[in-house]
Amino acid sequence: MSATLTAAPPPATRLEHALEIRGLFKEYTAGKPVLKGIDLAVAAEGITAIIGPSGTGKSTLLRCINRLVEPTRGEIRLRGTELTGLRGRDLRLARRRIGMVFQEYNLVERLTVMENVLSGRLGYVPFWRAWLRKYPEADIQRAFMLLDAVGLPEHATRRADALSGGQRQRVGIARALMQRPEILLADEPTSSLDPRTAVEVLELLAKLTAAENVPVIINIHNVDLAKRYARRIVGMAGGSVIFDGPPEALQTHHLQAIYGGEDWL
Amino acid sequence: MSATHPSPEAARRVAFAPNWPMRLALLAIVAYAIWASSRLGLSWDRLGHGLGEGGRLLARMVPPNFERWGLLLEGMLESLQIAVLASAIGIAISLPLGVLAARNLSPWWISGPVRAVIAVCRSLHYVIVAILFVKAIGFGALAGTAALVVASVGFIAKLFAEAIEEISMKQVEAIRATGAGVMKVLAYAVLPQVASRFIGFCLYQLDSNLRNSTLVGIVGAGGIGGTLFAAFKRFDYDFVAAILLSIIALIFLAEIISGRVRAALR
Amino acid sequence: MNSMTSPSFGDPMAPLRREWTRHTPGQRLSRFAVWLVCVAAIVWAVRSIDIIPEFLADAPEQMADLLIRMWPPNVAHYYPEVHNALIETLHIATLGTLFCFILAVPLALMAARNICPIKPLNVVAQFSLVASRSVNSLVWALLFVAIFGPGAAAGVFAIAFRSVGFVGKLLSEALEETNHGPREALRAAGASWGAEMLKGVWPQVQPAFWGIALFRWDINVRESAVLGLVGAGGIGLVLDDAINFFQWDRVSTVLLAILAVVLVAEIIVTRLRSRLL
């Protein structure tokens, strides 16, 4: 395993893992690590769900991957590219290969849905094109296709703040896929939605990422939803991985270990 | 039909609604800037020349010359006096005027004219008012004080009237119901509701009176402004720098103090 | 504490003789101190200010005299001199407002702590903004007349430099209030700093930006009317001439023209603001 990690990156098609994390530590204040040595390898397809109590570092883990949060030490490799040391332009080129969907959608509310979707291309298009809104025709066609796919074909010229929560998250998914990412990170994408919309959005996320062959890492609070959509479940507690396996293997005692206590079960 | 009109399918495929008004407005602004600059005789040539002049001016300003500190101190103190007096008189006049201008307390035939007076006080720049006073009652601190009183009335009385118009009339009714007279209603139902805001306006006006009192001297209405203008005319740029630094220091100090007082009031 | 324990030992009637006071002694003392400071300041100002009593006694009469001489305004003077000066004043105000953004936008970006994480740059920008604000536009005009010579160019620069502090401060506050989420999303998509500003921040501050620009333009119209008094162009020059030649009917024409323009500017700004926001 370690031999393949240190060797020069082989062709992408032969890699079994899209993302490999080794020995990842993160301390916001010195001496108090939030992440205590995470080791995780994510397959090149399917959904990996990370579950765990609030404040256990799930969100920090995702943000370390695309370096919105600076890891303290450790290695993160995206199809062979080491991410932790990147700076400036190289970092931006790496980030555009990683899509992200946020809990609070993080749309630019005063821009139209179309511009929000196209902003997923900002890592690709030069500044003047973004400024004049002269996106390449292929990008615009793909944006329309994605809007059709997420079920918002009529909303392209509406402003994002006119949409409901579920619609906004659909736009968020379209924006992330607009990057043609090699992996998609979803940080509690359904926590701000009502139960029915949450299922619909997850269904959509699973369908689209399967069609585009994009692996997904998803932070999620709802264990039932995690079991239903994920191919693999990672349970975190206290900054460490304490369960890793297929959904069928997740038993009650695992949940007790992850979340603590038993009254809530 | 479909030959002349775009099909709904094609219409939907427009990614952005073109924002023509915004583009035209931006274009108009740029065109205006160029046209107006040429009309006012602003050119790159002049700008370059000005930069050189500015450098020379700055060079003559440093180091600031505090030798005539007596003159400086005298001017600053007079500015301070003008500010204090103008604020005190302005506040004293604004209190009754504000009450009279509030449409929920005074009948329209009183509030209307009073509002007009306040509006006139507001719309004339205090330096223009200062010139008029200088011409009418002569050079000196009196003209400056009078000008700033007018400015203070325009500001405080207006905001005070607006504050009174926002009060809850239920409390006024309750005090009226006890049989209180007009002054008692004012003291027990109106003032308690607006007192803190009123003090805030007064502090703000004291602050801006202080700034403005350093200036009215330029037109001969007393204070440090006169000294500043004279130094400018004599090309004593190092003394000008000293005066400007003192003014900035005074305003800084006033801002800090009024910030403290406001924090304490909250 | 004291009032709870002492009656049981000493005077049994004490609870019945409660006294109502509006303020505690400490409060009363500090209120008294504030009043004392205010009164002392006023007394000091009155006693030491250099006011000639005869002037004071004479003042109402003189003012009335002046107003009578101003009436009726001589409207014949309006065209072309006053009119052209008025147009020049509007140009000075508008150009000054436009030019101030060249300096105000970069300074605001530097001063906003969430945009520019470099502490020393924040402080430098904040200081420049404060310095621009503490120097009045008339003083700026004096400086620029010394640089450019008398004329409208000095006026434009005076207005621009005075506005930088005001606009920059409000703009940096608007920037600091923006939501961080959209920027984070764009950064995660690999957007460069410029693209992040353009697509993540600018849409959020746009309404505030136009509001600030209009607000400052309104103020600048008022301010540019007096710049001519120190030779920086505009209608102030005409006013100064008329006053120096004691042509009071002409003075009142100029004053009315200024009033009208200020009023119209205020109406335009109110209209545009309600449409923009």
Automatic annotation (TrEMBL), chain A:
GO CC annotation: membrane
Keywords, in A-Z order: ATP-binding, Cell membrane, Membrane, Nucleotide-binding, Translocase, Transport
Domain ABC transporter, first and last residues per copy: 19-263
InterPro entries: AAA+_ATPase, ABC_transporter-like_ATP-bd, ABC_transporter-like_CS, ABC_transpr_PhnC, MetN_ABC_transporter-like, P-loop_NTPase
CDD domains: ABC_PhnC_transporter
SMART domains in the cross-refs: AAA
SUPFAM superfamilies noted in UniProt: P-loop containing nucleoside triphosphate hydrolases
GO molecular function: ABC-type phosphonate transporter activity; ATP binding; ATP hydrolysis activity
Superkingdom to which the source organism belongs: Bacteria
Listed PANTHER family: AMINO ACID IMPORT ATP-BINDING PROTEIN, PHOSPHONATES IMPORT ATP-BINDING PROTEIN PHNC
Protein known as: Phosphonate ABC transporter ATP-binding protein
Source species of the chain: Teichococcus aestuarii
Automatic annotation (TrEMBL), chain B:
Ranges where the ABC transmembrane type-1 domain occurs: 76-258
Membrane association type: Multi-pass membrane protein
GO molecular-function terms, A-Z: ABC-type phosphonate transporter activity
UniProt-listed SUPFAM superfamilies: MetI-like (SSF161098)
Highest taxon in the source lineage: Bacteria
Pfam family for this entry, one: BPD_transp_1
Signal peptide start and end residues: none
Transmembrane segments annotated in the record for this chain: 20-38, 80-102, 185-206, 212-232, 239-257
UniProt keyword terms in alphabetical order: Cell membrane, Membrane, Transmembrane, Transmembrane helix, Transport
PROSITE patterns the record matches: ABC_TM1
UniProt similarity note: Belongs to the binding-protein-dependent transport system permease family.
Cited PANTHER family: ABC TRANSPORT SYSTEM PERMEASE PROTEIN P69, PHOSPHONATES TRANSPORT SYSTEM PERMEASE PROTEIN
NCBIfam families assigned to the protein according to its UniProt record, in alphabetical order: PhnE
The protein, known as: Phosphonate ABC transporter, permease protein PhnE
Automatic annotation (TrEMBL), chain C:
Gene: phnE
Keywords: Cell membrane, Membrane, Transmembrane, Transmembrane helix, Transport
Protein name from the UniProt record: Phosphonate ABC transporter, permease protein PhnE
Compartmental location: Cell membrane
Matches recorded under InterPro entries: MetI-like (IPR000515), MetI-like_sf (IPR035906), PhnE/PtxC (IPR005769)
Transmembrane segments: 90-112, 138-161, 251-269
Family the entry assigns: Belongs to the binding-protein-dependent transport system permease family.
Membrane topology: Multi-pass membrane protein
Organism: Teichococcus aestuarii
ABC transmembrane type-1 domain span: 86-269
GO CC annotations, alphabetized: plasma membrane
MF annotations from Gene Ontology: ABC-type phosphonate transporter activity
Domain of life: Bacteria
CDD domains per UniProt: TM_PBP2
